């Protein structure tokens, strides 16, 4: 049925007890997962055995929100869990093939530290590191870094563009063959193959060079998530993977064409970027079993949590004064993440949802695409988006961990493989090789002169 | 012979090819060790099997220096190696008992990130994390973080004091029993046991709370290295381990008494701080064998490297115009590390060394204490400092890796054990337990009211 050849890519988006907002309350959940390294080892090894391209870790550099009553009722909102770079580095030592993608903010970090840590992780892991570049939508995080007010959305993206340029430049500090390590001659490196960036810009002055040698992938894979216009422009320019959220096939196809269409102006090919929307699949051996699993999780949502979550997704607006069975009121535009805000409000308007219906719809997957059904039904939907150029793969958000990841591996992957849509063995050694991304050539590389031929 | 009871503590200070400046040129060296994770796994596991308290990683957030000819002749100066936090996190996954101490600068970091990453590492490792707090002496590092000039020595220490206070406060964000994870009641944590720091100071405004739960050690172990007056004051106030450099027993005893004597004014007991000077031991089965090993390394020192290194140790002053066989000229005071500068110059004056003699003396261990001899001779020296209260233990700086670490384990440790000076098995599960440091009580902890008794 498909005119599109090839296979799709899969990420395993790990979140302590699972992505469903009430997962931690499920009888099968490990409620202390956020501080249990062995839990993550088990998940990462399971995803690797199943040949996922990568594991993905989101991040908040601080708790998102300060409504303590709400926070105390949820394991979400980055109240207490591992910091992604330390966790991924530890997981690098106990895995061999799976990609390791972690989130770090351009708003609260220095490019030298970020370029260096991800390059170091790329070496430790033998070429499996990826950086999910975010600008951070939460004003609560800003307060942990000396800002009374959060940087405005547009300024965050201006800073992010320059941040990404600096990191990219630092990763070219050393040519691939710069380190001679010639013991007899006493030359550790070739001075000609060391490059001082000396970046001077609006946000950053960074001299360089990076003090990590060029890494196995040349550069770690750069991942982004923004769906605003500024986010799409940044992604078209610098991202190699996009993790996004679209509820419908039409929206997904439009987003895909929009972003890929913007790449030519930056001298990039469409295949240089893989679009991998988030999806929360709940699979059962029958449709009824899947529905029961989902309903079980939904029944565990505390109304106070659902309401607070909708407030967050719609831009921090406090909805607690409005009737749960009434419509979403008109909301002012805010400084929060444009993409999640508009997607959530559009969903409510399109389907004429009450506040309660909306929280039951979005609380589970927090605005991401939910699929509840049999393996065939779920693979139908995943294939549909893939063959219609709405996705190059998916970032799988297991509702409950480890249960929903195990279910996906046991039930959905065999069906994807039966249809030829997913690998049975890794194609390469590095994340880039498995994603089908080229190893970037250094900006300082000079192609050898062609030799004169007869 | 000893009036001092107890055992000494040992750190294994890992540096890619070894601490001797010419180690990378040695026939037995692994010259690419700085980017080879397996090299570090081997070292960490060997140190753990030998029951070292900890492994220690120094750091530079950038290459130290920009004399490219010098840099290209040495594997030192942080030209290219792993970033410590990523490396230690990875090593946490493949070790079980040894402490993991990494360096991070208070001058180029944000306290929220540092407090969070070390707390995360403490969880991942099951209570084995330590943070070596440095203020960074290199102006070259500053240029990677937007500073044209390095922050002055005194300002760096003022910032470090506040930085340490903020980190310490963030580590108390959650009481030990804050996380209820009560699925039925829907309470993930107890709001009364969450504490918002809301620090507002001269250098930092940090709201908190930290989004990592209180870690196995309560707080990671805080290590410091400064030997200046400001450094000693900071250490007496906040450090739990001091890594220092003294050449003579008299200096070591004076330093020890000075720092421990300052602690009372901060309400601390002398035992709350372990002083562990660096030492580079080169051991042989005979004194002659040890001497030959040392001479072999010394013979590999490129004169250009030795000269540049002395310049660095004496404060960045360029000595290349002076005769190698002449004395050290008068030098101006600089903004560099006071401790290393004065220690190096004192050494030269005391022993009336030429520039060449000085570089041969200090280039090897870069200003640290060198011991060349048999196991008995080396243990005599180590015991002497220990029983005379010049040290609580040592940070062992292997000249060549893995060879010198293996030699220390095979030859020196049995002699230390024969004299009852070093453990044969770990005393505890955490780094604090092995170092004999108390688990800190949270500032918010209220001792239970004593019940009325008859």
Automatic annotation (TrEMBL), chains A, B:
Pfam families, alphabetized: Bac_luciferase (PF00296)
Domain of life according to the entry: Bacteria
Keyword Oxidoreductase: yes
UniProt keyword list: Flavoprotein, FMN, Monooxygenase, Oxidoreductase
Signal peptide: none
InterPro entries on file: Diverse_substr_monoxygenases, Luciferase-like_dom, Luciferase-like_sf, NTA_MOA
GO terms for MF: oxidoreductase activity
Enzyme Commission identifier(s): 1.-.-.-
Luciferase-like domain: residues covered: 26-392
Record keyword Oxidoreductase present: yes
Assigned protein family: Belongs to the NtaA/SnaA/DszA monooxygenase family.
Alphabetized NCBIfam families for the sequence: FMN_nitrolo (TIGR03860)
Protein name: LLM class flavin-dependent oxidoreductase
Origin species: Paraburkholderia kirstenboschensis
Highest classification ranks of the organism: Bacteria, Pseudomonadati, Pseudomonadota, Betaproteobacteria, Burkholderiales
